[in-house]
Design goal:
Elements (H helix, E strand, L loop, with lengths): L5 H13 L7 H11 L1 H17 L3 H20 L36 E5 L11 E5 H8 L3 H16 L1
Antiparallel strand pairs: 1-2
Length: 162
């Protein structure tokens, strides 16, 4: 019997019937059960730990896929032509411009957040014209022309010599 007592089972069924529109989810019932039944909670924890041991790269793979989907969604939402697919988006561990570690779980506008950059802005988001860089690198590159970036680099080098 999944519940320790019939009273616990009936209480759970009553909550299910009284929930809005009768839509208590299984996860809600499982949460209630984990809160009231320590043995069940321990079994759930053990199963989760076993699964994580068998799938050590799942979190990283999921974050990478989810980040690629987010980047693709943002590309489609822009006013530029977009024919790039998930397979075209490769997320490196480090930003190729600033050499900082990319963090797919970083909050919005964080310097380490991966960002989809168009190499040639006139072509749009098409295969071969996109690269993943850090949000900071994309912001630095956003409005500047090549000449302005070169001038900025020369100025920074001049300041370093002083």
């Amino acid at each position: 019997m999944p519940y320790k007592t019939i009273a616990l089972r009936r209480a759970s069924e009553k909550k299910y019937r009284q929930s809005p529109k009768g839509k208590a989810t299984i996860s809600t019932r499982a949460k209630e059960r984990r809160a009231t039944d320590p043995e069940y909670a321990a079994r759930c924890g053990e199963r989760t730990a076993d699964w994580r041991k068998r799938n050590p790269n799942y979190s990283r793979e999921w974050k990478a896929t989810n980040t690629a989907r987010r980047l693709l969604y943002q590309a489609h939402a822009s006013r530029h032509p977009c024919t790039v697919t998930l397979e075209d988006i490769v997320i490196p561990r480090r930003c190729p411009v600033l050499n900082i570690l990319l963090d797919p779980a970083a909050p919005p506008r964080d310097p380490a957040l991966p960002s989809l950059d168009r190499i040639n802005n006139t072509l749009g988001y098409v295969p071969g014209n996109v690269q993943v860089v850090s949000w900071r690198a994309n912001q630095l590159k956003r409005d500047a022309t090549l000449g302005e970036l070169i001038q900025l680099g020369k100025f920074a080098r001049k300041l370093q010599k002083k």
